[in-house]
Amino acid sequence: xANLKGKTLFITGGSRGIGKAIALRAAADGAxxxxxxxxxxxxxxxxxxxxxxxxxxxxxGGKALAVQTDIRDEAQVEAAIAQTVxxxxxxxxxxxxxxxxxxxxxxxxxxxRFDLMWSVNARGSFVCSKHALPHLMKADxxxxxxxxxxxxxxxxxxxxxxxxxxxxxGMSCWVLGMSEEFRHQGVAVNALWPQTVILTAALKMLPPGxxxxxxxxxxxxxxxxxxxxxxxxxxxxxxxxxxxDQVLAEEGVTDFDKYxxxxxxxxxxxxxxxx
Length: 275
Hints:
With 275 residues, the protein is α/β, with parallel strands linked by helices.
C-alpha cells in the first residue's frame, strides 16, 4: 500500500486542528513535515504552537521542522519553503490549510476582517503555491492539496456571508486554474472539503449556539482523506474537488462513526454543500 514515508510536506496553519491532524497522519508513515504557522507561544484561547506540534510529529514517527510563518508575508513564505528544502532535500507536498473566517453579512464585516480573509485565504494560498511549485516540479509525485470547497454558485452562500465566500472560493479558483496550468508538469492540484462541520478549536470561537458540537466530526476524517489523496498518482489525480467521506468510501472505509463526536447525533452538513 502506498504511503508517505520519506516524503516532505509543507503545511500552512498546521499548529492545530485540521492541519495538525494531517501532519500527524503523515508522520505516522515516517514523513518529513514542515509546520508553517504563526503561533510560537500559546494563544490565550486557542491551543497549540508550532513547536508543540513538531514534538508530536517526532513522537508519531516523522521528522519535523517548526518554522514561524505569516503567509501574508511573501518573504516569510519564500524563506520558510527554502528552509524546508534545505533541511529535507526537496519538497513533495504543499497543503494549503491556513484560513481565516468571519461569518457575517456585507454591512457587518469590518474591512480589517475582509482584508484578513482575503490575504490569508485567497492570496496566501497563491503565494505558497507560487513559491512551492518550482520545488514540487522536481519531485516524483508532487501534490498541492488545498482545504477549500467546491465552487457552488448558489446565491445562498454569497447572500449569507459573501466576504468569506469570496475569500474561500479564491482558494478553489487556484485549484481550478493551477491544476490545468501544471497538468503537463505532473503536479497534482486538488481541493478537499468536509461533508460535515469539523470540530476544531477555531469552531469554538464562533458565536455560541451557531453549531452544536455533537453534530460534528473530528479532524481525523480529513487527515485520513488527505492521506489517501496524497498517496495517489499525481499525473492521474488532479483538478478534483474532493469531499472527505467520498474519498474514504472509495478507499473502502465503511465505519464513519469513529470520526463522529457523537455517533448518535445528526450530523451538520458543512458550508457550501447542499444538505
